[in-house]
Design a protein that fits this description.
Layout lengths: L4 E2 L7 H4 L2 H22 L8 H8 L4 H16 L8 H7 L5 H9 L15 E7 L2 E5 L6 E5 L5 H7 L6 E10 L2 E14 L2 H17 L5 E2 L15 H5 L2 H10 L10 H22 L21 H10 L4 E11 L1 E3 L5 E3 L3 E7 L6 E5 L6 H15 L2 E7 L2 H11 L5 E4 L5 H8 L3 H10 L5
Parallel strand pairs: 4-6, 8-13, 13-14
Antiparallel strand pairs: 1-7, 2-3, 2-5, 3-4, 5-6, 8-11, 9-10, 11-12
Helix pairs in contact: 2-4, 2-5, 3-4, 4-15, 5-6, 10-11, 12-13
Length: 442
């Protein structure tokens, strides 16, 4: 995923490329995004704040929790302004002026970052005074990548690997350089002999030609960032004030939400409202011409009202989520094909589905989703904090109903390359055991 690059050779040595302040800002963006996305998927209840995340990062469990949530964050980042994506919500959690800094620096990370395609790995060639030399899978394009504390090359050598070495990593454009997120993955493959010599010669040729890439700029086709909304007032509000604010916006907040979740909900409502105004003005029609969904409980159909009444009968458990994802089959060319018949897997806290069902159409109807949401709630005997659906229109239709039971429904995006690679190399049992140790009640 590489967009038109900035090619710069020369400049200050590596220790001046990313200052301590820059490193703190980068880590603040990433940590906030991880906490926000965890609140959106309800996976690890103990990851409820940046402080809690940093504690878990120091444990053995953190070796998988942080990569997993970071990979999922990239998935939600790719939703971008139509989501709203993690980038916009992360900015909403930062106090001014850092919210504007976050939007400016990380708003394009969903579409503009350096990583390898599925099934491919990049080669970390060596360290230089301007960062680690990283080659693409073909060995024809070279990048200089820096780290927060240590470079990717230093991280690998400290782990006992001898460079050059093939691995997977993700680097993000930040303050004019490429910063790797601190995570390496994939199947380690040493590069030796003639192959290593060819890479070294190709890098020297690229260096002489001035084509080594040190930064990325967003593609001209990337969607524009969402309109900024005011969020500085949210941080000063108490939990009761945030609940009252949500109620005034037409969202039920009668349950025991924590402040992180409440801020996320209010910010998402404001972003959605701002995007709607930008698209359609203050009228009653959506951009494609359809009528907007009614939000008053009196507008619900009898079956929808009955579903709300049944959801209200169960106790609520914070930091949990029900996720509806269409089951897809992957062919040898790595193209996903929907399973037949139209099968939807229902996840409730675990890495394995709680159950699956077959729909009558490619996209499940609101009635089908509500029916199986109630089935999941009946099985687990509590109501989740969140519901996610992997179809944007279906998620909006369900949100119209579940919001009256104090349950937020959001869009669950397709997995990023990082998420696909992580889940392909991690067993379901490992993920479930990890979630249990991090507070999930499976």
């Amino acid at each position: 995923m590489v967009n038109p690059p900035i090619r710069l050779i020369g400049g200050p040595p590596r220790n001046a490329l990313l200052s301590d302040r820059d490193a703190m800002d980068f880590r603040s963006n990433m940590d906030t995004a991880v906490v926000v996305v965890n609140s959106m998927i309800g996976r690890y209840p103990l990851v409820f704040s940046i402080g809690a995340l940093r504690v878990i990062r120091q444990t053995q469990d953190g070796l998988l929790v942080v990569p997993h949530l970071t990979a999922v964050a990239y998935s939600f980042w790719e939703v971008g302004p139509t989501g709203p994506g993690v980038g916009a919500l992360t900015a909403c959690h930062l106090v001014p002026p850092f919210d504007a800094v976050c939007r400016a620096e990380s708003g394009a990370w969903g579409t503009t970052r350096l990583n390898a395609k599925p099934g491919e790995q990049m080669t970390v060639l060596k360290d230089t005074d301007r960062g680690s030399v990283v080659a693409d899978a073909a060995g024809t394009t070279f990048y200089l990548v820096v780290g927060l504390r240590v470079s990717p090359a230093t991280a690998l050598t400290r782990a006992g690997f001898t460079l050059p070495f093939q691995t997977r990593l993700t680097a993000l454009p930040f303050r004019g350089v490429l910063v790797y997120d601190g995570l390496v993955s994939g199947r380690p493959v040493p590069v030796r002999g003639a192959q290593a010599a060819r890479l070294e010669a190709a890098y020297e040729a690229a260096l002489a030609a001035g084509t080594v890439i040190t930064g990325l700029i967003p593609s001209a086709s990337a969607p524009p960032p969402p309109p900024p909304v005011r969020t500085d007032d949210l941080h000063a509000m108490s939990v009761p004030q945030l609940k009252a604010h949500l109620t005034a916006m037409g969202v039920s907040a009668s349950h025991s939400f924590d402040k992180v979740t409440l801020v996320t909900m209010v910010a998402a409502e404001r972003l959605t409202a701002a995007a709607r105004r930008a698209d359609t003005g203050e009228g009653s029609a959506n951009a494609e011409g359809s009528m907007r969904q009614p939000v008053d409980e009196a507008d619900l159909s009898p079956s929808e009202a009955a579903a709300v009444a049944r959801l209200r009968l169960f106790p609520r458990r914070n930091k949990t989520a029900v996720i509806f994802k269409q089951v897809a089959l992957h062919s040898g060319d790595d193209v996903a094909h929907p399973a037949a018949p139209h099968t939807v897997a229902v996840f409730f806290g675990g890495a394995a589905p709680l159950f699956s069902f077959s729909g009558a159409a490619p996209v499940p109807t609101t009635a089908e989703l509500l029916e199986h949401l109630l089935d999941a709630v009946n099985r687990c005997r509590f109501v989740p904090e969140l519901v996610s659906v992997d179809n944007r229109a279906a998620a909006a239709a369900v949100e119209r109903v579940t919001r009256h039971a104090g349950v937020q429904t959001t869009y669950y995006p397709p997995p990023s390359v990082e998420e696909r690679m992580l889940t392909a190399n991690t067993t379901t049992a490992e993920m479930d055991l990890l979630a249990t140790r991090c507070g999930a009640m499976l």
